Automatic annotation (TrEMBL), chain A:
SUPFAM superfamilies: Sigma2 domain of RNA polymerase sigma factors, Sigma3 and sigma4 domains of RNA polymerase sigma factors. This is ECF RNA polymerase sigma factor RpoE. Belongs to the sigma-70 factor family. ECF subfamily. GO terms for biological process: DNA-templated transcription initiation. Pfam families: Sigma70_r2, Sigma70_r4_2. GO terms for molecular function: DNA binding; sigma factor activity. It comes from the Bacteria.
From TrEMBL, chain B:
Signal peptide: none annotated. It holds the Pfam family Cupin_7. This is Anti-sigma-E factor ChrR. CDD domains: cupin_ChrR. SUPFAM superfamilies: RmlC-like cupins. Residues 104-188 form the ChrR-like cupin domain. It comes from the Bacteria. It comes from Octadecabacter ascidiaceicola. The gene is chrR.
C-alpha cells in the first residue's frame, strides 16, 4: 500500500492505492467501511434491504472503475462516494440519467499536494463534527436535504440550515482551480 | 470571456447535489457548473456535506456474500457510458441532451427559433435563438424558469445576462428580456411546467407545433 504522510486519513490512502495501483486489499478495506454505511444511507429513504444491496454493489463497483476521477485535493473520499451513491440511486429508482457537469481537464497523476489534501480532509472532518453536534431536529433537516427528500423550495425556506459553514473550503477549492486554469493557458 | 455575475442560488445547488431537482433544472444547473468555477466549488462543498451525512449514517450489516460478489466482479467488463464533450458554445451536459447532434431549430416567428430538448411531466427544457433586439419568448409564468446564456446576451429590468449567466425567474418576476446588440442570443431555458406557447399560437395547435 502507498506510503502517505501519516496525517492523511486511511480512507484517502486506500482510495489512492486503488486509483494508482489497483490495490484490491485497499479496495476491500474501503468496502468494509462504506458498504454498511451506504446500505444504511440508502435504506433511510425507504428502499428495501435487497434493492439497497444491489445499489451498494453498483456503487462499490463504480468506485473501482471510476477511481481515476478521484482527486483528493478537491474532494474528500466520502463526498466523492456520496455523489456516486446519489447518482446510482437516481438511475436505479427513478430510471433517469442525471445530467452531470463536465469533468475538469486535470492531470490527477500529478504529484499530490499533501497540505491541500489535509486541508480538504480537515474541513470535511469539521463539517461532520458540526453535523453530529446539531440538535436532533436540525440534524434531521440536514439529513433529509442530502438524502434528496427536500425540494429546493423547502431547502430555501430553511433559514437556519448551516449549509454555509463550508465557505472556507469553497475559497480554498476556488483558489486551487483558478491556479490550475492559469497553468492550462 | 466576461466574468459570470448571475449564479445558481444555493438552495438549487444543494438540491442538485442531493439529486432532487426536476430533470430540466438539473440540466441547467449542470450546464452552469460546467461554465462557472464559483458554482462548481459551491456544489462540491454540498457534496462534502452529503458525505458527512453518509459518514454519520446508521450502519446496516450487509449480507455475507456481498463482498465476495463485488470482489469477483472487479475484472468484469463494464460498458462505459458515453461522455459528451463541450462542442462550440454547448457545454457537455447540453451536448448529451442533444445526443451529440447540432440543435434542430424550429421557427417561432420574428426570427426567434427554439429546439426542444425535453418536454414532459417534470417540465421542459429547450434552446432558444433570439436575434438582437427581439424578446425572449414568453416564459411559462407558471412555476420557476432558469435561463442560461450560451451565446450573446440579453437584458431585462433586473440586469444584463451574458455568457454563463443564469437567470432565475418565478411568477412574481414581471420582466421582458430582450436580446442585446451583437450576435444572436442563444440560451438554455428550463421550466418545471410544461411548455406554453405565445398567445398567438392557439392552444389546440400546440401538439402540432412540436412536430
Ligand atoms: Zn455560478
Amino acid at each position: 500500500m502507498k506510503q502517505q504522510p501519516s496525517q492523511i486519513s486511511s480512507l484517502t490512502t486506500y482510495m489512492l492505492s486503488v486509483r494508482d495501483d489497483r490495490d484490491r486489499t485497499a479496495f476491500a478495506l474501503l468496502f468494509d467501511h462504506f458498504a454498511p454505511r451506504l446500505k444504511g444511507f440508502i435504506m433511510r429513504s425507504g428502499t428495501g434491504a435487497g434493492q439497497a444491496e444491489e445499489i451498494v454493489q453498483e456503487v462499490m463497483l463504480t468506485i473501482w472503475h471510476k477511481a481515476e476521477q478521484f482527486d483528493p485535493e478537491r474532494a474528500q473520499v466520502s463526498a466523492w462516494v456520496y455523489q456516486i451513491a446519489r447518482n446510482r440511486q437516481i438511475d436505479v429508482i427513478r430510471k433517469e440519467n442525471r445530467p452531470l457537469p463536465e469533468e475538469l481537464g486535470e492531470d490527477p497523476s500529478a504529484e499530490p499536494d499533501a497540505s491541500q489534501i489535509l486541508a480538504v480532509e480537515q474541513e470535511a472532518g469539521q463539517l461532520k463534527d458540526a453535523l453530529l453536534k446539531l440538535k436532533p431536529d436540525q440534524r434531521d433537516i440536514i439529513e433529509k436535504a442530502y438524502l434528496g427528500e427536500l425540494t429546493h423550495q423547502e431547502i430555501s425556506s430553511q433559514t437556519g440550515l448551516p449549509l454555509g459553514t463550508i465557505k472556507s473550503r469553497i475559497r480554498l477549492g476556488l483558489e486551487k482551480l483558478r491556479y490550475e486554469l492559469k497553468e492550462l493557458r | 470571456m466576461t466574468a459570470i455575475t448571475h449564479h445558481t442560488p444555493d438552495a438549487l445547488l444543494a438540491a442538485y447535489a442531493a439529486g432532487n431537482l426536476p430533470q430540466p433544472f438539473a440540466l441547467a444547473v449542470a450546464a452552469h457548473i460546467s461554465l462557472c468555477l464559483d458554482c462548481r466549488a459551491a456544489h462540491e462543498a454540498h457534496l462534502v456535506s452529503g458525505g458527512a451525512v453518509l459518514e454519520a449514517s446508521k450502519v446496516e450489516a450487509v449480507s455475507e456474500g456481498l463482498k465476495s460478489n463485488v470482489l469477483d466482479l472487479l475484472d468484469a467488463q463494464v460498458v462505459e457510458k458515453k461522455v459528451y464533450q463541450r462542442s462550440g458554445i454547448y457545454p457537455g451536459p447540453v451536448m448529451e441532451a442533444l445526443k451529440g447532434k447540432p440543435p434542430r431549430w424550429k421557427s417561432l416567428g420574428m426570427g426567434v427559433r427554439q429546439s426542444i430538448l425535453s418536454d414532459g411531466r417534470e417540465g421542459s427544457v429547450r434552446l432558444l435563438y433570439i436575434p438582437s433586439g427581439r424578446a425572449v419568448p414568453d416564459h411559462s409564468h407558471n412555476g420557476l424558469e432558469l435561463t442560461l446564456v450560451l451565446q450573446g446576451s440579453f437584458s431585462d429590468e433586473t440586469g444584463r445576462f451574458g455568457v454563463g449567466d443564469i437567470e432565475v425567474a418565478d411568477q412574481s418576476l414581471e420582466h421582458t428580456p430582450i436580446a442585446d446588440e451583437g450576435a444572436p442570443c442563444i440560451c438554455l431555458a428550463a421550466t418545471d411546467a410544461p411548455l406554453r406557447f405565445n398567445s398567438f399560437v392557439p392552444r389546440l395547435l400546440q401538439p402540432l407545433f412540436r412536430i
